[in-house]
Amino acid sequence: MKEIFVRIPEIKFEGSESKNPFAFRFYDADKVVLGKKMSEHLPFAMAWWHTLCAEGADMFGSATADKSFGARKGTMEHAKAKVDAGFEFMHKLGIRYYCWHDVDLVQEADDISETNARLDEITDYILEKSKETGIKCLWGTANLFSNPRYMNGAGSSNSPEVYCFAAAQIKKALELTVKLGGRGYVFWGGREGYETLLNTDMALEQENIARLMRMAVEYGRKIGFGGDFYVEPKPKEPMKHQYDYDAATAIGFLKAHGLDKHFKLNIEANHATLAGHTFEHELRVSAMNGMLGSVDANQGDMFLGWDTDEFPFDVYSATFAMLEILRGGGLGGGINFDAKTRRPSYTYEDMFHAFILGMDTWALGLINAAKIIEDGRLDAFVKERYSAYRDTDTGRKILSGDCTLEELAERARGLGKPRLPSGGGQEKLQALINSIIFG
Ligand code: XLS
Ligand code: NI
Ligand code: NI
After folding, report:
1. Looking at the annotation, which residues are catalytic?
2. Which site from 152, 158, 219, 405 is most exposed, i.e. has the minimal number of CB atoms within 10 Å?
3. What is the pLDDT of residue 414?
């Protein structure tokens, strides 16, 4: 096999003092943290679309990067060159998983049967590589947003024929996920929403989306898919309003339609901030509902209102995210870098620097979160803050669920004024976090 990323070595851990830009300073795969190897805590994945397909084009300018990998774009030779490049790239970084949309893998043909034949061929090739290297599929998905037929949505389209195409793509993508041994299958509803309510039957659209998901679950289970289905919430972009707005909305939707047993969430950092939440908020909402599945790791920019998909740099955010993940018992899925280099960072070297940044940032997040848990003071504070629910008769009564409004009103009458313990402690806790991280 011809090496594609020539001059770029395998990336190794060299420690925080290292000045080598092609080394990890913090990600030490075999290092044990809280009883598990870093590589097990952090099942990193490469996103096929950003890493092997996206060439830096934006609304105002064309591609800056070249991802032809020596082949003519759009051909099967190119599709295979991307597989070669992807596996070499993951191998050099020590990444063990990848994620894909159907149309990331091959050029879509005019006829869906031809597209499917191309997908069969390329996944045979991927499977070979996977067997050679042990690098596996984290999750697959159908791209139900790029093709012009999805201009009015996929499951939410006003056209039953478009709905059939969505079903066909999901069916195929599920088969391929099973073939590649994927841990999960994602629904990201980029076009499942509306631009104006004036033209929209929201109830019909949402019921149709639920029907499509239910059929996907039925078919997936029938063909032996034992993994989790994921919804990836996002409030907007490309649509003005997307139905899977945030974790709470998606969970409500899944529960309302009886889909929650089969689904978990894939939480993306930048989508959380677009919804006006922190990343850790979305992770907490998922975890407390037993639906924390997988993560799309990236970050936005506080001055820009869109999904900039930057590589993770914010160590506080990674720390709080890892805190939620560790407390939630880890991820059944993984940590997919749904992130792209900035447009001028167009070289192969830049791709490696981006992943080194992202992996080191998450390693720092893990190290910090483990320190916070081992230190114990943060958890003790929170426990103490609610202790009156355990330690007083009134508190226990409320938690038991066995009380009435009248009974509680009667208790209030006897109290005069409620006791108001200092409940915040925000500044104290923030100082504590800094002292643990930097101390
Ligand atoms: C776009 C989404 C997309 C999903 C997969 O904003 O993040 O990339 O992760 O369809
Ligand atoms: Ni994503
Ligand atoms: Ni995104």
Report:
1. 101, 104
2. 405
3. 87
